[in-house]
Write a structure and sequence with these properties.
This protein has 219 residues and is an alpha/beta fold. 31% of the residues lie in helices and 22% in strands. The protein is built from seven helices and eight strands. The protein has an eight-stranded mixed sheet, sandwiched between helices. Helix 1 crosses helix 3. The mean pLDDT is 93. This is tRNA (guanine-N(7)-)-methyltransferase.
Length: 219
């Protein structure tokens, strides 16, 4: 969903280049070790962070990890940044750029987890290549994930979920966890579920939340 432009958010982003990378040149590798207080910590990435409730909560809960929020909209990046500054999240960086360049923004084998939360379903067939679980994106995720890394995916859209399961299966991925009703099934996941803004909205309406963890490592 496109957010309405907020001048204060745009201004805030422009005032904090140490926290927000804006449209970095994909041809130039980003020196992430200079952007984190402790770059030796494990790195995790959320693609399409929206207003950032998920990634900022996760960063606050886990100061022993580093996080990058990839978000294309400047207003959304500003909302994330405001929370980052309020909570003093030195382990969180914001990248305002296109996720299609993720393998250019990050070195091979550099991240442990990629989070895909309530991504745009792009329901029309002609837009299949824009879906964040399309095979071209999966190939890029595989490049930047460590050998033991994985993808964590959540959506309320049954069509996108079915498509993603098929796409990942065709790519040869292993499903470590699958749920078709995350909030009501008795399931075990590796960490406490953090709800996004969209997740709270959809769950309140009674919509089932679909989730999966998938890895590229052969089992």
């Amino acid at each position: 969903m496109r957010l309405r432009n907020k001048p204060w958010a745009i201004k805030l982003v422009n005032e904090h280049p140490e926290s927000v990378l804006q449209n970095p040149d994909p041809a130039k590798k980003i020196n992430w070790d200079k952007r984190f207080a402790d770059f030796s910590q494990p790195l995790e990435i959320e693609v399409g962070s929206g207003k950032g409730r998920f990634i900022t909560t996760l960063a606050a809960q886990h100061p022993e990890r580093n996080f990058v929020a990839i978000e294309l909209q400047t207003t959304a990046a500003g909302i994330i940044l405001r929370t980052k500054l309020e909570k003093h999240l030195d382990n969180l960086q914001i990248l305002r750029g296109d996720a299609a360049d993720i393998n250019r923004f990050f070195a091979p084998n550099s991240t442990n987890i990629i989070y895909l939360n309530f991504s745009d379903p792009w329901p029309k067939t002609r837009h299949e290549k824009r879906r964040l679980t399309y095979k071209a994106f999966l190939s890029k995720y595989q490049e930047v994930l460590t050998p033991n890394g994985h993808i964590e995916f959540k959506t309320d859209n049954s069509g996108l979920f079915a498509y993603s399961v098929k796409s990942m299966n065709n790519f040869g991925m292993h499903f470590d966890f699958v749920s078709v009703d995350l909030h009501h099934e008795k399931v075990e996941i590796t960490q406490k579920n953090i709800e996004t803004e969209y997740e709270q909205k959809f769950a309140a309406k009674g919509n089932p939340i679909y989730a999966l963890y998938a890895s590229f490592k052969a089992k």
